[in-house]
């Protein structure tokens, strides 16, 4: 079978189920393409030999009732994988091999998928361009020296370049949706509490959420159906009725009310983005949706709020990386000296910056002014959405304020880098589901994405809207395999 | 002069100082598993054998609250007559230490599970109420071992994550004796409830002691110092005495007391500065985002209330009212649930007054001598009850009973059998006794004449002689009666 790697997940599943394709053939194809694509630097750790063995074992006694029968896939290196190195993109975990498996990845393996390796990401998921990874920059398959977005940059690059049919990322402030937008792929950030955080290296616990990344909405829905389970091992996991999202997927969104928040028309937003948004509104109308202007008045405060809450939690979450128990250790004269050297050498600049911000905003004397106030604003932001959802079923916005930028372009300007998350961050603060779908190209031919934000636990609805719009948009990614010699 | 004898004051020159003490007691929750993980909590296990991935803070590991520990904390709150907060919040207390794997301790800061309550102390000059400020749940840290290697420190994480209740008193204590009574009462209540074993040797109960002094009659509190982690009542008392005197000396010397954290050096019997207020940690408390606020319903609390056993104060009241015990005796018997259980088992089938005397007198002394707890008593409640009945029905005298008791202490033997085997049964046959007494009078003619001529004190001599000749077995009451007639 030719062009195995060009097949979508749904096609691969169908072909394996109908025995037109074996897991070994599929795995071999994706492994070979991954091996030819080293220049993208999408992988931190490859596990190809094991993957091929597992595929062989699967083929010997294939269980074709599974949802991901023998499907090879690579995952973001923030998910702990038993017996396979898990780095979180950091030097401090360079030698860390978990003895346990994250719930989300376990759910995937339980449905028959096969792990090919661990994908690059910003260090501890802190970044919007994958440039903070200790394991080097990741190339966007769209163009050379273009960032793939972040923090799930290895994941977006790998899906767009078809090194893996699907993948999972994590999204704390946009880390699934922004890279999906930058690479012309689909990424879903589920409702907070939908996917277990057990075994996922923590960045900001109240915001972190794992989610699927794929080439199309249907694949995304199928993967979400697999990874979203209630988990007693995560106290913030929520026990609600989960749909079989892929089975219940429908393009019939007639009469759905879609809100357009005026506050998302930010100053200095490129015309291309404005135009894309307008086009999106037309597509939604074409699908039979009703467009309603809404207001989310506290949108302006979302980014500063996020950059208080997320670093505060991160500063505490990352305290465990101290050189005492596991991971990297720099020897020191005494305990304090060992701590300082380990953490100075083990963490990169961006992680250190956020630990310092977080430590500062939690310090006595500043706690009320920063952390506590941020929590109050966070509540107001959530209230904005609650009010809006009295009038609408979903909200449509651009995914990002620009298309992908060049590697190095924003490295020395953290604030400009942080602005990348301006449309995605409010969704995390409110704990809502949001999906980014590719919707067009800018003048340079780089992909642009639209974001559909839903009510809590209403993944099915935004998947349906995305599915309907996807057909109207009929997006084609321009990838010419420039990195393959 | 002080109004009552137990008032504890420090005198310097013409000034009298009062000592103000507040305690933060750390009580280990009795629970098979830890506060946020399923690891075991057994004391004395090999180092690092009771450690889960959560306790060692591996990446991606998350805490899950142990409901049993929550119940234990609420029960303790009920025992302290305290307000149970239906909503409480777990916070992170951030600091770095080698035996703190997470880099933070999960504790409760702003919203503890238990609010204000009280503990009643029975002091020699009456009852004293000590206010409880709050009780909150928190994780214990691991243990750093510095003396196994000259260069390295070893870390044992068995304790890491073990559930503790921090019980904070109001600054209501005024003397080392009150501290002693307070700790014992708290321990007693928790042992009744089964929420903390109170074992201080194993570190199940330890306290941070806040001490300040002020001139007698002053309403303002003085600057306090906190003495960290004192693990015996004796050391607490020693530390308070030292610290209070140190502070008084400073004031008398015109110096200022620094608010600081101090350590008690048990070898030198002194407190030493650990860190000043300026160097105090900034713990950066904030709500733990891995845990939702802890919410409990009225039904949940009511169900726990229904499971609360009779507590020492209530039991004492019942003992006094029902068994006519003196408050002093009642206090002793209810101080420990095992003792009160023992007592109630003994009196099921025997005389209350004798039981009180034998338990508080003979049994406690004998156990003390052998360094045994009441639960380890060689004499079961049933056999002590039998012994008391033998006295009561006149089978043996109180004196013989002591001999029997000593034998019983060597092993839990039935006192009846001991009496039979050793022939210790009391001689109560008047004829046999008359014969004995006749012989004694005969042998001591001269003394008998002295007695008759008015030297009545000699009566005791005759009783003693009769008892001696009978080998202690003569029924003293009958001996008295017959002697009176014969003489």
Describe the protein's topology:
The complex is a heterodimer of chains A (485) and B (487).
Chain A: H1 9-17, H2 23-36, E1 43-46, H3 48-60, E2 72-76, H4 103-110, E3 114-119, H5 153-160, E4 166-171, H6 177-183, E5 186-189, E6 209-214, H7 217-227, E7 257-261, H8 271-286, E8 290-294, H9 302-317, H10 335-346, H11 349-362, H12 368-388, E9 394-398, H13 414-418, H14 425-429, E10 434-441, E11 447-454, H15 459-473
Parallel strand pairs in A: 2-3, 7-8, 7-9
Antiparallel strand pairs in A: 1-3, 4-6, 5-6, 5-10, 9-11, 10-11
Helix pairs in contact in A: 2-3, 5-6, 7-15, 8-15, 9-11, 9-12
Chain B: E1 9-12, E2 15-28, H1 67-79, E3 87-88, E4 91-94, E5 104-107, E6 117-123, E7 126-139, E8 143-145, E9 154-156, E10 163-169, H2 176-193, E11 205-215, E12 225-230, H3 233-252, E13 260-265, E14 270-276, E15 286-287, E16 294-295, H4 298-306, H5 312-323, H6 327-334, H7 337-346, H8 352-370, H9 381-392, H10 398-409, H11 415-422, H12 430-443, H13 445-452, H14 459-469, H15 476-486
Parallel strand pairs in B: 12-13
Antiparallel strand pairs in B: 1-2, 2-10, 2-11, 3-16, 4-5, 4-15, 6-7, 7-10, 8-9, 11-12, 13-14
Helix pairs in contact in B: 2-3, 5-6, 7-9, 9-10, 12-14, 12-15, 14-15
Q: Spans of chain A with pLDDT under 50 lasting ≥5 residues?
A: none
Number of helices of chain B: 15
How are the strands of the largest sheet of chain A arranged? 4-6-5-10-11-9-7-8
| Total beta strands of chain A | 11
Q: How can the largest sheet of chain A be summarized?
A: 8 strands, mixed
For the record, give the distance between the C-alpha atoms at the N and C termini of chain A, rounded to a whole number: 23 Å
Give the chain pair forming the largest contact, with residue counts.
A-B, 43 and 30 residues
Q: What fraction strand of chain B? A: 15-25%
Radius of gyration of chain B over all CA atoms, rounded: 30 Å
Shape of chain A: globular
Global shape of chain B: elongated
In the CATH hierarchy, what is the class of the domain at 4-257 in chain A? Alpha Beta
> In the CATH hierarchy, what is the superfamily of the domain at 4-257 in chain A?
Amidase signature (AS) domain
Number of strands of chain B: 16
Helix content of chain A: 25-40%
User: How confident is the prediction overall: mean pLDDT of chain B?
Assistant: 93
- Secondary-structure element order of chain A, N to C: HHEHEHEHEHEEHEHEHHHHEHHEEH
- Which fold name is given in CATH as the topology of the domain at 4-257 in chain A? Amidase signature (AS) enzymes
Helicity level of chain B, as a percent range? Answer: 25-40%
Ranges of chain B where pLDDT stays below 50 over 5 or more residues in a row are none
Number of domains of chain B: 3
